[in-house]
Amino acid sequence: MNLGVFNRVNLKDSTEGKGMYSEWASLSPMIQNGNEDSHSVLDKFGVGIGKDVAVGVVKQLASNLGITQAAEPSPLTTDSEVQWCMQVICFGLTLPLSEHDTIKDCVNVYCEWLSALLPIPKICVPKPVCEDPNLYARRIISHFHNLFVPRKGEDWPFLYQELGVDTINRQAVLCHRVLRTLQQLAHESVLLSRETWEALLLFLLAINDTLLSPPTVRDDVADQLCERVLSVLFEVWLIACARCFPSPPLWKTLRESCMNWRHRIALIEQWNRINLALTARVLEFMYGPTFPELKIGEEDLIPPGISNDCIAQSWFRFLHCLGNPVSLCRPEVISQTPKFLQFAITSDSVMDPCQHPCLQMLPMIFLKAIKGIAGQVDAFLGIAQTYSWEDVVTGGGSGDKSKEVTGVHNVNHSPTPPPQRRLAKSFSVAPSTTSKGIPKASLIGLTSSRVSTSIQPSSMSSSGPSSNSSLASMTSLSFECRSPLAQARPKCNSILHLFGEWLFEAGFIGCENAFRHRLGSDTNKRPNSIIVDNTKSSLNMSQPGSLNDSTELPSSLTIDKYESGRAEAIGALCRVFCAKKTGEEILPVYLARFYLALQQGLKVPSNRECGETLVSILLNSSDLFRLDLDGVQVLIPSVISALEIVLPEKDLKLKSAVSKIELRRASIHLLLSMLVLPLHFQNLIIRELINIGEKPVTFAQLKPRMMNLLMNALQVESDPHNTHMLLGGLLLCVQDSSALELVEQVAQPDSSTETTSNLLSSVSDTMSMGSATTGSGNADYHSLPDEIAQGFTDMQSQVPVDSAHALFVRATYLVCHRLISSWKTDLNVSLAALELLSGLARIQIRESDALECKRAVKWLCDYIVYQCSRPPPAHSKDLHSTIVAAFQCCAVWLLEHPYLLQDKDCLNTVLEVVELGVSGTKSVGKPGEKIRLKDAKELKPASMRVRDAAENLLTCILEQVGYFPSECGAESLSSLLDEVSLLKHCNSWPGDCTDRQTAVERFRYFVAEGSIMLALLEEPLGNDQDPQPTITVLIRGPFGRHAWTMQLRHLPRHRSGTKYHAPNPGRPVPMQDMPPRPEVKQKYFPDSVERVPQCKVDQSIPNLDTVTLSESTVADETAKLAQLLERQTVSETNMGVAYEGQQDGIAECTPPTVCHEYQTARLFLSHFGFLRFDKHKENSSAPTLIALDSSATDFCKDLASLDSMSSRTCDTVHVFYVRAEQHTVYEIVSNVVHESTVTPQFLDFLLTLGWPVNVAQHAGWTGHISTSWRVSTGAQPNHLSDHGGSLFDGQSQVLYWAEACTEVAFVVPSQLKKNDTQPSAESLTYNTNYSHSSWYGVNENVNKEKPRTLSLDLDKNPVTSSSSLTSGSSTRRSTARHQPHPQTNTKIMVVWLESYEDHLQFPIAELLPYMSTGLETTPPRPGDCFVIFLHRLNSDLLRVHLQGPSGRMNLATPLVDGMVVSRRSLGPLVRQTALNMSRRRRLDNDTYQPPHVRRRLKVQEMVQKYKREMTEPELLTYLFSNP
Question: What is the dihedral of CA 837, 843, 847, 850, to 10 degrees?
Fold first, then answer.
């Protein structure tokens, strides 16, 4: 006999059995030794005699029950008769199973007699039983015990080896009949007394102990009934709690009994089931109906009418009825029961109880128990999930999965119970029962309904939970899938008080060796004594070190097999600590144990495989560094080490069946929350959690690892969402590094800077040389040469990544390469990459590398070429959106780095791409192709959106690059001069006149090329002292308004002082001696004519006289001609006479006077080629120059509308400040009124968004249409000394930021004035009367099925012909103007939160009236708003939360939801994110038109309305006439 086993039999109970009932007596001996009332007097006689008596009596009693025939009243009328029969029935229940019919009759009789406790007893019940039903019910219940116990001389493990399955099924049916009857009594009876209740509960405890205490044997009756007897026990116990609360001895007995059954998986499943049902009711009455409901699918499990106090008491007691669930990972503790020890003593094959084959299920049992606890933790956190028992049963909760995990030593246990016999309220045990009939009361496996993933079964050669099945719950714990936490959730300390001890202990499983020096444990102690000591230690280690010795435990029960349960426990702890609210305090002891558990769980194994614990930590700790947890920075080195085996690996090795994408996403969230820490804390030392003598690490030393981690992760990432997040983090790093260097003026050492530049440039040069041999349109974009990629990888290991310049170069190289090779087909990733490149272009890098910038522009152009050259089936709205975004990005690079256009190759590349975008093809094609001139090409752009974007880039190159901001400032791209302003400089204009209509009439208006309006003023602007042909031109085109003043000069300006028009110098005195005037006789023919002899031919021509005589008409005409000749002769004679008489008084000839009046309009139009007089004109149906009638009605109004249409996109961002627990609009908008109600950091943040401008004197966008794009010199700025941001509410000042292509106003609404009313028509000037139509107004055809075709046609033929205009003019002039699409007026909010949880109740809908811009045509919807929440942490960093409508395009970068940013980079990142949000919204809008297109269409509309119908001669006559 094994002496060790004998010692365990005699060992006293451990401390685990003690608890809240330690002072109460246990009833365990009573249920284990049996009750005397369960013995019959017939036991005194022989088995044969008793059998004969029982068979005869019971058969007679069963015949009156009404089962086979009509029921009859019982013949038993006295107590003695009934008691005698009960002695017989009691004996009949002890008969061998071969006497099935007799046992069945005994069960039927007793079940019918128990109806005496029901409201309507059956007729067959004896009268004495009806009179005292409780007394007889207690005796009957005690007799029923005989049905469930082994017969004398038989032992359960060997009993059924000689019996068939049919016999076992028959007995199971009888047991189910008894259980069903007792369950019915508990539900329906109102007569049960306390004694009867206690008897019933003791009976259920006894039969459960009898069946479940022995070690599990496959397919025995205990295996058959395990689930059923447990479910009845717990359900009846719950009913007893509602009607007759069990006494403390009963609760203690239940606890002790359950601890003896812990090797049964069904016990854990039923325990989870009851706990979750009670937890759902506890949450309901503790936190109210608004708390997320815990749906378990068993609403009737809790009896009706039970009080809240009773539910709370029952919930806590049931929760602790198993003792410490972590003991499930200690086989020697679970097997330390009398039945196991007895089995080991009597068995020859088992040397130790912990080696019993049934204990191979302990890893799965432990996992289910921890998952049950984790489910309750999630319920208290408000992570409401639906727990469905049917899914668990059919999905392998304890079915086939159990068979998977118990394959050691060829012991294949069947499910407990088998699937075909999972019974609850239906008691059929037919083998054909399918899962279709599985009731909701079935056992719960808690494969965590937080996850619903299909797990592929896999065969295992070792025991313990399989890697594919044990972590089925983990995928649900991803950042995106989890439900939001309940706002009214309890504090973390409260949850940890309830479950922390178990979770911490489970989390430290297998970590004992790491703390052995701290525990001071003695390895020579017996295993059990080590357990006791360890449970008393400060760290509460759960597993003794000796259990790790494989010689003491089977390989299926080694500590590593319990890693799934440990991972679940640590995951639950992570969710608890990540549920910390703003300002909430967590006890330091909990924080210390939590950090210690995470540090151990994050250890990277030597094989660099992601274990289940590490995966669980990463999936559940996304918010770990965003919550102001005290001392959490000590975990940063461990977390980075863990991320280094997850993010850079393309083929990640995982033990658990979790989504690699979700795991990487959670890891990226952790990385994004740590990126700014190295530069924020810099040289601060990270303390060690456990002093192991290693060299301390500073935050700054971790930056290279983080940067390499970020770059490597971006290089291998394939998921679009994850890539989107990484791109945002990359721009954050570059922005933060650059801002820090600029603030601190810290330059990199010359040597390292030079090395960095040379290394990076050399690799880039190699790349460019490798791709330069191919044309820009023919390059292979799929991948770079392998040697180049390898060179870049080697470079990354050599080049320091601390400087902003190094990050800039690496980011540009990597993003451009992946944009062309991998990301070009994904819309969101392409947009995010282009947004990052735009952000990089705007960052001021001190050591900017022109070569890298040039290469980035070249890559962008190649990207556009590739996208445009894709086959027609690939062209879609998304593709064209990426091309438009690439053109915009290219414009940003050129505007921020204007020196790039000084490079001939760069300029040529950009202009070729512009040509491609405008026309659809390049003039210079592939090598060998003929050059196509632009005049010979047909305009076929990829789309009108692409053409518009290319035109915008071309205009930026010609007008803005190197010249922005202009003399007017960044507020306006157009000239601030208009007609009134120009005429104020004319001498003929009254100084006090400001009438615009009068001013407009002084100008001549023409439209050239259908899109450029020319306003010509021929009066000089006050320069009469130097009269020159002077003209002033106001040019209104698609890209703004410009004022030109030109003079026609014959000398250069530096010689303009020389007077070339000197006074008359006179002429020489004429000679008085006039020569004689000869007399000349006029002859018509020479004299020789008369000497020529005539011939007959000469006579053929009749003379004049002959003709005049023959024709009267000719005679009349000849007479008139003679008269005219005579008059002329007389006139000439008279002139000669007069000349001779006045020869001495002839006036001297003088040059004409200098001209001071010029037709300069004609000169300008002619010199600039708008007037052509050649006859070989182009075949054009419309003239190139059209005169407009400026005196027409509404001309001045439409002209003002055109001026109020900005040539840039305009956006508005509204900023709010929310103090802790503020939810009303009045409170929120009132915060910014006074400086004392906001933090200084908020005011500093406002000034980083833009620069303050005075609304009255501001020429750009102000946030509202009524005050934008007009300048008033009379108003004075309003300076407030005490304000919390209300100064920028849009009434007096706003915060403004602009670049060449866009402008944005940041408005801080306040309670002082509410912008919820639209300005009336009377109160607005010319700039605002046309508010909606001026910004979006186009003609009616713009909104048709092909809106942009009209624009292209009008460009080719600027004005329709007279016939078409006549037919369509009436329709066009009566057209209602186009209304703006809601997406063109994007609502963006920036909200500064003092308490992060307030974002859940932020009143977006109520604040929309404060965000009016005047562009709204329909009420904005709260769901269409983009919100950027900012929460300041105690470390002075800020946590970002993004909220917005879900659509095809994700939220824009660079800010990412959950990112932690520094204050120095917050302003630019918020501004860029807001701008990118608006840009993406415009890209996604089918009806959106760029500003220059709207201006062009407005000019074309004015042409059609105010055109002067003139032919070309009439136009020339109009030009030669004075206006």
Answer: 40
Q: Is the pLDDT score of 706 beyond 80? A: yes
Read out DSSP for 1423-1484?
GG-EEEEEEE-TTS-EEEEEE---SSS---SSS-TT-EE-HHHHHHHHHHHHHHHHHHHHHT
Residue 1320 pLDDT = 36
**Is 249 in contact with 26 (CB distance < 8 Å)?**
yes
Q: What is the pLDDT of residues 652-692, one digit of tens each?
A: 888 778 889 999 999 999 999 999 999 999 899 998 887 77
Amino acid identity of residue 141, one-letter, is I
Q: How crowded is residue 461: how many other Cβ atoms within 10 Å of its Cβ?
A: 6
Kindly report the length of the chain: 1523
Question: For residue 1257, what pLDDT band results from cuts at 50, 70 and 90?
Answer: confident
CB 445 within 8 A of CB 398: yes
Q: How far is CA 1491 from CA 113, 1170, 1384, 1494, in A?
A: 91, 26, 11, 5
Q: Which residue has the tokens 């940067």?
A: 707
Contacts of 535 (CB under 8 A, 6+ apart): 15, 16, 542
Best CA proximity match to 405, nearest among 266, 510, 557: 557
User: Are 479 and 722 spatial neighbours (Cβ–Cβ below 8 Å)?
Assistant: no
Give the β-pairing of 697-698 and 1438-1443: unpaired
- 624 with 632: CB under 8 angstroms? yes
Q: What is the pLDDT of residues 971-996, one digit of tens each?
A: 888 888 888 888 888 877 776 677 88
Residues whose CB falls within 8 Å of the CB of residue 961, separated by 6 or more in sequence, listed in order: 894, 895, 898, 901
Q: Is 1314's pLDDT higher than 60? A: no
Q: Cβ(539)–Cβ(518) under 8 Å?
A: yes
Furthest CA-CA distance within the chain: 191
At 3, is the secondary structure helix, strand, or coil? helix
Pairing of strands 1209-1218, 1388-1393: parallel
pLDDT value at residue 988: 74
Q: Is 80 exceeded by the pLDDT of residue 1355?
A: no
In DSSP terms, 1461 is beta-bridged to: 1438
- Residue 431 to residue 1442: CA distance in whole angstroms: 56
pTM of the model: 0.80
Count other Cβ atoms within 10 Å, centred on residue 937: 15
| Strands ordered across the beta sheet of 1040-1047 | 1040-1047, 1030-1037, 1012-1017, 1004-1008, 1185-1188
The pLDDT of residue 1311: 67
Q: How large is the angle between the packed helices 877-896 and 850-868, nearest 10 degrees?
A: 160
344 within 8 A of 338, measured Cβ to Cβ:
no
Average pLDDT over residues 1004-1014: 91
Give phi and psi for 295, each to the nearest 5. -95, 120
Among all chains, which residue has been given the structure tokens 């003593």? 345
Two structure tokens written together for 506: 């489970």
Of 348, 345, 402, nearest to 223 by C-alpha is 402
Distance of CA 852 to the CA centre of its chain: 31
Q: Taking the mean position of all CA atoms in its chain, how far away is CA 93?
A: 67
SS3 1389: strand
Q: Which residues contact 377 (CB under 8 A, 6 or more apart)?
A: 495, 499, 503, 572, 575, 576
pLDDT class for 1204, splitting at 50, 70, 90? confident
| pLDDT in the model for residue 867 | 93
For residue 50, name the pLDDT band (cuts at 50, 70, 90): confident
CB atoms within 10 A of CB 819: 24
Higher pLDDT, 1233 or 1280: 1233
Residue 1429, token pair as written in the block: 């929440």
Strongest mean pLDDT among 24-33, 36-45, 786-795, 1511-1520: 1511-1520
